[in-house]
Amino acid sequence: xxxxxxxxxxxxxxxxxxxxxxxxxxxxxxxxxxxxxxxxxxxxxxxxxxxxxxxxxxxxxxxxxxxxxxxxxxxxxxxxxxxxxxxxxxxxxxxxxxxxxxxxxxxxxxxxxxxxxxxxxxxxxxxxxxxxxxxxxxxxxxxxxxxxxxxxxxxxxxxxxxxxxxxxxxxxxxxxxxxxxxxxxxxxxxxxxxxxxxxxxxxxxxxxxxxxxxxxxxxxxxxxxxxxxxxxxxxxxxxxxxxxxxxxxxxxxxxxxxxxxxxxxxxxxxxxxxxxxxxxxxxxxxxxxxxxxxxxxxxxxxxxxxxxxxxxxxxxxxxxxxxxxxxxxxxxxxxxxxxxxxxxxxxxxxxxxxxxxx
Length: 358
Hints:
The chain is mostly helical. The protein is built from 15 helices and no strands.
């Protein structure tokens, strides 16, 4: 009997030891990657860099009618380089903004779109066509108009954050709810004005309301690129602080972090990135969510130093790969954003309905 008890205790101890040894391998951490996890991360990062180079070079050189190396070849490649650069800018904006926003809100489902950036863009575009006709779309093109749209979106975000987070009873949940209400109200006003447009005006407006790389102008890039580089660099430099923010308000405060001030700084940088992306190409609601979700799965860590680069590369691979396939395989370049939104929306529903950890 004693031998049986000892044998059972030994088996239970072995099982507990096995579970304890397996637990760290399955759990994600925010500390330094080591061993197998480190090798896996660098393999994933290398594969994403290779895919980004393949799709980027493919968009520049594939189906180029001029001989390789000729002056005409490089002229066409330079024209296409604008679209590739816009994709890179949008990928960085959506990836960094969504990952950072989900961290400060402690929610892996919502995205910065919930704050009404897309709704404000649609309202501005619709109002211009409603008030000025088709000439309104032309009037909104140009560097001053681009700067004005970015300034409006960032100012709207700062007003919302400053009002709701600086007060005594201010909290993030109320801010998100008010953002939803404001976005819904702007959407309703836009829908009302769209019903009053003529068919030709509505067709022109619809082309602007779909997120499309062709909406961007090369003249916008000298302003957009510095803004994105500065905002993205500041977010990456705050990676360790965001690791602490991810622990929650109480834990981060007990660790000596000024929670409210840090949240407002991150949200300011997020608003700059989202404003640039939306003003540059238009609304892309589910791109950021798709990229952030895939980045957590690929990096298999919660350390923002590792997640942010993977998310940015994934965003560029998704955008450039989709445009390359739709342009050169299906000859339907204009539906790229619709397909990305469809896939992103499907992933969103899958995450909501899925049980277990993300």
